[in-house]
Amino acid sequence: MLEPLLYPKTVAVIGASRTPGKVGHDILANLIDCGFKGQIVPVNPNADCILGLPCCAELRNHKGGVDLSVISVPVPMVRAAVESSIYAGAKAIAIITAGFREVTPEGAELEREIARLCAARKVRLLGPNCAGLINTHHLMNASIIPNLPPAGGISVISQSGAVCTAIMDWAARRHLGLAKVVGIGNKADLTEIDFLEAFAADEQTKVILGYLESISSGDEFVKVAETVTSAKPVVILKAGTTQAGMRASASHTGSVAGSEVAYGAAFKRSGVIRADNFEKLLDAATALATQPLPKGDRVAIISNAFGPGIMAADAVEQSGMQLAALAQGGSTALRGKIPVLERAGTPINVLGDADLELYGAAIEAAQEDDSVDAVIVILTPQVMTQPAETARTIAHSIRGNKPVLAAFIGGEEIMPSLDEMLDRNLPDFPSPERAVTALRALCEYAAWRRRPPRVVTRFPVHRRRVERIIARHLRTGRIYIGDVKAKEILHAYGFTVPEGHMALTADEAVEVANRIGYPVAMKIVSPNIIHKSDAGGLKLRLSNPEDVRDACDLMLLRIRQRMPEAQVEGVYVERMCSPGREVIIGMNRDPQFGPMLMFGLGGIFVEVMKDVSFHLAPIAAEEAMQMLSETRSYALLTGTRGRTGVDLSAIANSLQRISQLVTDFSQIAELDISPLIVREVGTEPVVADARIILSGVGLNHE
Amino acid sequence: MLEPLLYPKTVAVIGASRTPGKVGHDILANLIDCGFKGQIVPVNPNADCILGLPCCAELRNHKGGVDLSVISVPVPMVRAAVESSIYAGAKAIAIITAGFREVTPEGAELEREIARLCAARKVRLLGPNCAGLINTHHLMNASIIPNLPPAGGISVISQSGAVCTAIMDWAARRHLGLAKVVGIGNKADLTEIDFLEAFAADEQTKVILGYLESISSGDEFVKVAETVTSAKPVVILKAGTTQAGMRASASHTGSVAGSEVAYGAAFKRSGVIRADNFEKLLDAATALATQPLPKGDRVAIISNAFGPGIMAADAVEQSGMQLAALAQGGSTALRGKIPVLERAGTPINVLGDADLELYGAAIEAAQEDDSVDAVIVILTPQVMTQPAETARTIAHSIRGNKPVLAAFIGGEEIMPSLDEMLDRNLPDFPSPERAVTALRALCEYAAWRRRPPRVVTRFPVHRRRVERIIARHLRTGRIYIGDVKAKEILHAYGFTVPEGHMALTADEAVEVANRIGYPVAMKIVSPNIIHKSDAGGLKLRLSNPEDVRDACDLMLLRIRQRMPEAQVEGVYVERMCSPGREVIIGMNRDPQFGPMLMFGLGGIFVEVMKDVSFHLAPIAAEEAMQMLSETRSYALLTGTRGRTGVDLSAIANSLQRISQLVTDFSQIAELDISPLIVREVGTEPVVADARIILSGVGLNHE
């Protein structure tokens, strides 16, 4: 798909230079040094020959075509270089030059213009303001980063060239091979999504690593990532997650960072392994690139010392995995050999004077044992320890059927042993906790791969009815939909709402109240009044005709006094809901990822305790249930302190209906049901109060 | 104080062996190899000479005395070796041999016996089951760990020999010097507390590092640690914090781990820097050993690339520190040199082609700038980067007035540059986030050193009254103090309790109610009834004489029916408290650390949301206020959603009074005020219900 970019036969370097240290020189040098088998065309009007290659003065005059054109000329000359490349037949262009969107509005405009130019000719554009790209399996380094790394299974997508370099340098240290490394820079055309797709299809890529400061098209990202992660693991470090980080990021690739919560929800939803920091990114990648996926989360710890074994045990439990006990068989095989018998659920201690055989025997037993899913092997240098020999023995004991991760702990003493392990795909981590965290990423990804298919229920609803209400609001320029009409919309999507009717006078209000039964609530209806209770436009628990009459007269009087300009349509008289547990369902549309559902218990739980959970719509039934159980106050829903629980699946159902509603109507920008009143199992939740805000971008006529 | 142990002139090795690999051989070899200047006495009845030193057959026959005796003979011979050492005049004994308390009850008994033997002669005992000790400034390695590390300022106290070894090996890699390294093993006599004191007094020690699985005497630890940390930083990794870790730990040094919450409270209280994992332990030690303390938490980030700069900015904000903006002066000095001007509160970017001067200028500007407290300098290897030269330039720019931490990120490329930095006390961390975490430890410790003096208020109370109530309970074998007597105790310590009196009959109850005024509560009083409401022994909000009479008759009837054996002393008629916000104050006595206070809001906040805070008693006023603000529901106390706040200092006051009560009376094992009713500022909190449980160990007659 990105063949001309990733596997070009001819690469032109526009801005090739004779001066070492200049970008145009270094790219050319990198291309030559890596042993590229295709044709390299340096373009420079003032040179005949650079680094032994004949120069072309103007690419448009070059005969024989070109697949990829790498541009490093100064900003004012980039546009001409792009045109020249297109004219010469380039199918892909990489612009290394910086100084576009990230600097000035004019730079942004120029960037858009160039992108349009390329798009018109179906030429794919990488950058600008990027590090270029490397494809080890094509012996191609068309980047500013020196050296071609050893070939392997890790592909890198990075918004920062420096991070590409750091990852390459780190991979060399860990003896890990790389497949493709791409600096995506300002993403004027090609984005992380294009490369996720390309690397998913790429046979050489086993693991995809990403460093991102922004995501270009959130909902597409989620869709693509979900497909990609079903085949290959994707680990992403999303930087710029704090206010400070965002300020720093805004001056970099000119990107606008999305809401933090939304990124969390998007990664969870699409099976992307999220790295909180740089080490976790690399550690997870190491484990994923070298180890098979575990069948479960029971971890055997083998250690030649108690202390680090205890640290590992702590880390295993803290990360939500389980410490494995070797089953009877495994234990028996080892019983004669291991001095201190391990007790159920404790690390296997091969003691300080562990000889090579003992380590080997313990690792083999753990790999054979059906009650072990993964192994962590720890070594500290002790008097009798032979780190290098032990490393060799351990490496030779690896079967490859279960993940085995090592933590050789120390410094100088253990350095010589690492190479041997790394060469045999046995990754080493410098502390027990780091090994556990890396294993955790493996386990999480394995669980994602085992997930049941996601089925989003489509409920039968009255969609036309909602369309009409929304259209009517937008036609009259109203984006706020108050309680009464919001309930009509929710009712059309299967929600139970209290019976109620409009009244224009106190007499009518009493008549309505008599008809629907007491107690009633009374609410002013006006497009100008959003905060009803502040304006005196809300009365609850009116229990007889006199109270209704008084409330209605008083309400109309107050509104005339306080908000004389408000256009009053009447008062809404509504049967009071019977009391129950109050929950809140909300939605707002994240600019990157689209509709984000929110759930929490009413009142202080949302407002003071911030005890809420989020999920991207559309959601499946299990995800809706998960939203409930993710709140800290969940126990109040399931029942506690002698109170019976509420109908959980009825709430989950409500969340799914909201999910369907906001997916059906992209005009809905925000929605709040606050509260939804829920009661014991078998009862219908009732919408006590609701409001909807439209985005005002006009109705989609589908 | 531990002079004979840490600075012995003569060291005997009982169990010295000719066979390499045997512990008795290795210890002797280590002592000889490290260049020990004192006398070494190998003890072995079957050898004349080992490793060139003449042997002594029996230490008791050795002429000329001995300061330290190191014992590595098998368990059955240890007792005799100890006696022999004492006879020969040893002032300190280190038992390396394992197989005592950690293995069998007999081992535990033998260990106690040996400890008694030593104590009787005022001989200090290290171990058993320990790695021995190292004192680099005395050129002494009396341990099983090979090599004498370079001398420096870090001293290590560890319950695991393997952890000692790992730390030594790691320190060598980081070019950090060590002062003392002690494996404390089973702690039969000398514990972490002794070594905290010794290292606090030790001129060579600048930083104390601890690996602990248990703490021997919690309250003494807190007292000693608070003094030590006021002079030198103490960083401790407490392992065995999870169920899994505790199981693993129990089989190690035979220690019983204390409550997790208590450790957290104890470390907070005593200024100990707590490391969650092994890397944090080492990273914090590195920063503390090499850097000056910062005056505040404003961090300047200098980076040659945006990506890692953003990661660092994220980490700074997440850890609660602030990103510094260079003040006008600093910026001007740099303005001509730095290509992209930094904006306020963003990392200072010296760009990918940063030359050495630019790095140097940026670091100097940051060190001069009054709005910067600490500097993090980041380098990623890029085309033009010269890591080694940059390292040198940076190292030369260090003034030593503010902490400067480096994060050179990558692998192979940056390896050569590290040594130069390390040698100049510029610590390097492998990721931006690790550098930030290490800096955070520095900042925290600096804040601890700046803390105001802790003043624990002593309130005037009626202590004798409480003594009498407790004595009376214990005399009659009752450890449960119910609501009525608990309120008497609390009243004696200055709490407001509702007016109330005992009644024996319904007539009396009505009489009491009429006197104190309605509404009243009525509570059964019986030493046998703990859960009053379950037994039908609690009635609330009785508002007239008839209700009181009915309730009393019914209560006495119910109790006779449900608990015929209960000894009923009467009913307690009490004025109902006016409603307010309900909070809970609790105390239980941690086996390690003593009285632990708990605070939380009543009802679901404690029971469902587990929203509680803890602090060790006694507490000062600020600590009490901190207990309030540490709860997530704090906003409900300060006022929110249109409700006015409650009297915070009145609650803090109550916490301090409870602190005084439970410190005065060690017989109080548990105490609960549930709830304490608090209202607006200026009102007294009222104890609505309380109970106290005594430990039953008898009254201290002071």
Describe this structure in words.
The structure is a homodimer of 702-residue chains. Chain A has 702 residues and is of the alpha/beta class. Chain A has five domains: 1-128, 3-Layer(aba) Sandwich (Rossmann fold), CATH 3.40.50.720; 149-290, Succinyl-CoA synthetase domains (Rossmann fold, 3-Layer(aba) Sandwich), CATH 3.40.50; 298-432, Rossmann fold, CATH 3.40.50; 499-576, Dna Ligase, domain 1 (2-Layer Sandwich); 581-694, 2-Layer Sandwich (D-amino Acid Aminotransferase, Chain A, domain 1), CATH 3.30.470. Chain A is built from 24 helices and 30 strands. In chain A, the strands form six sheets. The first copy, chain A, has a seven-stranded mixed beta sheet, with helices on both faces. In chain A, a hairpin with a 2-residue loop joins strand 3 and strand 4. In chain A, helix 19 packs across helix 20. The radius of gyration of chain A is 32 Å and the shape is flat. The first copy, chain A, starts with a helix and ends in an 8-residue tail after the last strand. At the A-B interface, helix 5, helix 8, helix 11 and helix 16 of A face helix 5, helix 8, helix 11 and helix 16 of B.
Keywords:
homodimer; 702 residues; alpha/beta; Rossmann fold; 5 domains; disordered C terminus
Distance between the termini of chain A: 32 Å
Strand content of chain A: 15-25%
Under CATH, the topology of the largest domain in chain A can be stated as Rossmann fold
- Characterize the main sheet of chain A: 7 strands, mixed
Structural class of chain A: alpha/beta
Please state the second-level CATH architecture of the largest domain in chain A: 3-Layer(aba) Sandwich
Number of domains of chain A: 5
Which regions of chain A contain 5 or more consecutive residues with pLDDT less than 50? 698-702
Identify the overall geometry of chain A. Answer: flat
The pLDDT mean of chain A sits at 89
The CATH first-level class of the largest domain in chain A comes to Alpha Beta
The CATH superfamily of the largest domain in chain A bears the name: Succinyl-CoA synthetase domains
Q: Cα-atom Rg of chain A, whole angstroms?
A: 32 Å
Q: Portion of residues in helices of chain A?
A: 25-40%
Number of helices of chain A: 24
Name the chain pair with the biggest interface and residue counts per chain: A-B, 93 and 94 residues
Oligomer: homodimer
Number of strands of chain A: 30
Neighbour order of strands in the largest sheet of chain A: 9-8-11-10-12-13-14
